[in-house]
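User: Hi! Is it possible to get a structure for several chains at once, not just one? Here's what I have:
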Amino acid sequence: MNWNDYEAVWKRQELPVGADADLASLRQTFETKRRELAATLLIRDWTEISACLVVVAFYAWFWRSIGPSGWPMAVAMLLILGVAGVFLRERRRTRRKRLGADSPLLAKIEADLAELRHQRRLLLNVWAWYLAPGAGAMLIQVGVIIRRAKPWEATREPLFLLGFGLCLALFLWFVWAINVRAVRKQIEPRLGELEKLRRDILSPN
Amino acid sequence: MSSSLDHESLFQRWLEEHRGIVVKVARSFAQSPSDVADLQQEAMLQLWISLPSYAGQAKPSTWIYRVCLNTALTWRRGTVRRERRIEPSADVSLVMAEAASPAERAGERELLEQLYAAIHALPEFDRALVLLSLDGVAYREIAEITGLNENQVGVALTRARKRLAHLLKGVTDELE
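Assistant: Yes, the chains can be modeled jointly so their relative placement is included. Here is the combined structure:
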């Protein structure tokens, strides 16, 4: 047997004739997927951005209620607005037109690789753009509260401070851990597969 | 409304002419009948979604190969890896179209099953190259589909054919 024999057998295989596509079902699947994606994006965008805005509004109210001595809250508000800014930038990035399924295979693989690497970088650096500013804002607020507290109030108790510190550290660790887990379980395996595929394509041997 | 009708009629026409591409890509990248059906459905969905961006720069068949192969490569990544070994695929229920006698038909059918099994055992990109080559697609067109240059296509295709020949060696020894 040689290549031509296989080519001949390959070309003689029976294939379905005609379009045989249920257009109504295709259109419905497409519309369902499009609606689901739009709803997911809308909910995610509004949840993240509006959560940040609610926190900023709360900090503004808190500052107003305690007067000029609450000025460090301005820094806390800026930190939270910075987090909202990162979310906003990422959402705009997501909405930008990407390479479609009709791109050359190598270009599509490289675009997918670049996107996955970006996501991995974002998740592994979650402490820098999300956890540190969030924790900083919380610490500023607690600092303002402690500074205004009377000597006998519970907020000045070392036990309270210790408990708060532990809870905050636990929360930060938890958020960091779920992000690292997502990188390890979801992004890195896909990244590995795509990198292997790219190597296979470009390998001369 | 009219553009939506154009979209539909073009889609229908291309599918009538090039349905074989969708089927052969699905058969080459999926093994079980349900996976083949899933992949065909996914490829058709991607063709439907991508059709408005078709700019006419490539031949329709080139464009369809690109969409189907990109879909197949993505689809494979989302599924559990299967063992890379040669065994007859249960889903390749293929009847040869022009074989003369029942014995000849049975022989060719078996050969085609072995060919698909060997293709399934190839690395993903080699699978795409072998499929394009068996379909008689020219180097220039393969280069357009893959994004490699023609020299790279030549080298990669030689490598893929060698791997396929190695996988089929046992089969051809039996047949000869």
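The two ends of chain B are 59 Å apart (CA to CA). The helical segments of chain B are 2-29, 33-50, 60-77, 102-121, 124-134, 139-146, 150-175.

User: Great, thank you!
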